Every structure is written in structure tokens, then in C-alpha cells.
Amino acid sequence: MANEILYSIGETPLKDLINAKDADKNSSYFCPDCKQPFILRKGLKKRPHFAHKSISPNCTPESALHYGFKTLLHNKIQHHLDQNLPLNIHWKCAICNDIHKGNLLKKATQVRLEHDLGICCPDIALLDKDGKVIAVIEVIVTHKPSESTIEYYTKNKITPVLYILNSDQDVDRLNHDDLKPDRVDLCTTHPKCPKCNHYKQKKQLIIVDASCWKCHSPMKVVAVQSNMHMDLNSLSTDEIQIANDNGCFLKKQYSNIEKASYVANTCKKCNRFIGEHYLFSDYISDPDLDRQLIDIGFSCPDCDTNPKLQKSSPEYTSASSFANSILKRMGM
Ligand SMILES: [Zn+2]
Ligand SMILES: [Zn+2]
Ligand SMILES: [Zn+2]
Ligand SMILES: [Zn+2]
């Protein structure tokens, strides 16, 4: 089984950690987690690993892997700090989907194992010169940090770095010069919302090549794409200008049905406009229409929601799911 977790890390009598493939039969080793004696197994069927000499009921390969990985990672970081070396880190950003790179030790001057923060105790904490925790590394084998822990990190401007381990062979990930964790909640391109401290999301215009429902003249139709529904009324004058510079015609219109005026896509030829109700269903969600996306800035999913539309309203759900399904189909 590829994903079977074996005891692959042992401790020497001098408390050094060693990988089973580098261990030799004539030395003695102990379990890094429960400290009981290990025997080395180098057979043909399985990769080299250790086993307890006698049953150790409270020890699991998962807990030993967790302990071994975080200790080796801590030692690697400590070594870089001692030598004054940068430690490069790469991650695929969950916020913007780009690959970001940086030096994990740009501001860090100390590293601590199991640093007690009161509400939580991260596996590894990085502290700056003033003793403030600036980043934490969580090694996840079975237990994920809770939502409230992640929220605590966000509020206190602590960057969480997560390693998610599925096999004892994940220890080999520490052999590379650079760190490649599975998740880092840090985006170097998106701004943070000053109100809630979460990252803002990209706000884009989706423009489709359609035709007027009345006179059938070609017509560019625009909607706002963000991870929440924002209608055209949320656009600033400058943003409306961007749409209109790209061939759209947004104009304030009065709806007799809704007894209100709103910004709507208007036909340049016959001056008829597309009601809010039909914008997603008849235009934006039509997969056959050619489209372009234009970045117009950032918005916060929690603080910049259009107050007219509640998140639970059917219009909200249909509009955002339409937009999301379209983007999925386009592979975005
Ligand atoms: Zn053990
Ligand atoms: Zn990013
Ligand atoms: Zn916010
Ligand atoms: Zn028309």
C-alpha cells in the first residue's frame, strides 16, 4: 500500500533523528514518539522501516510521523537561522491560484517547537526580533487545525503554513533546499480588507458578445464577476467607463415593473435594455457566447456585498452559481 504509514524515523541514543533507509542494523534506535526501543527492518517487501521491540499501545505511526516531521523541519529552520541563510518557500496560492515564492526567514529570528499561544499550540512558531509570532507551521497527519485556530491566526496577522502528510515518505520532502508546503494563507498580490483582515477577491467584468433581444443588432453585454453577486449598480463611474470603453453601453434606465431606476446594458441602436432578471439567465450563463474578462480591482466577500441582495436570496444564489459554473466550464 502506497499510503500505508510506517515508522520510518528513529531516534539514536544521542537523540538525533534518522531515516530508516540511512540506519544500520548494528546500532540501537528508539521510537521518537514513545521512546521505546525499535528494531530496524530492511526487507524486500516493504521499504526500510522500524518496528517497536514490544507492543507500545499508545503509540501510532501517525503520531510518530507527526513528531518526526515537525522536529526535522524545526531543526532545518534552526540550522538556517544559525547560519544566517535564507529559507526559500514556494506555494500555490489558494487566493489567486498563482505560485508565490519568498524567504520564510525574512523577518523571523527565532523558531520554537510547540509554542504555547494560550488558545492553541502550533507545531512550529516563527518569531520576529520583538518576540511576536509572525508565522506558524502546522504538520497535519490526522488532526487539522480548527476553524477557530485559523481565525485566531488571521486576526493576529500570523501566517499559517500547512503541511499535509499522507505517507511516511513525505519526510523526503524535507530533503529539498526549498520548502514546498501544501498551503500557505498568504497572498502576495491581493490586498487585505481593512475591516475584516481577510483577503479581498478579484473583481472582474465579464463581457459577452451577444445581440439585442429586440432589434438583434450585435451588442456587448457586461456583468460583474466576484465570488458574491454584485449587480451593475455597485459599479463606480470609472468602472462603468471601463465597460463602455470595451464596447458596452451601460446607462441608467427606469423600470416600470420595478418602479426604480438602475444601470443596465442598453442597445446602442434601439435603446432597449436588458433587465437585471435576464442578465445571467439569458446572456452571461450562455456557454456559446464569446466572452472576455477584465480585472477592475478587488472586493471583500464579507464587507462589500451589495446590501440590496441578501446572501440567502434566490437571486443571489442563482446569479453567483451561474457565474461560477460558467467560469468552471472555461477552466478558470
Ligand atoms: Zn512509539
Ligand atoms: Zn496569491
Ligand atoms: Zn472585509
Ligand atoms: Zn436593439
From TrEMBL:
Domain Competence protein CoiA-like N-terminal: 22-55
Pfam families, A to Z: CoiA_N
Name of the molecule in the record: Competence protein CoiA-like N-terminal domain-containing protein
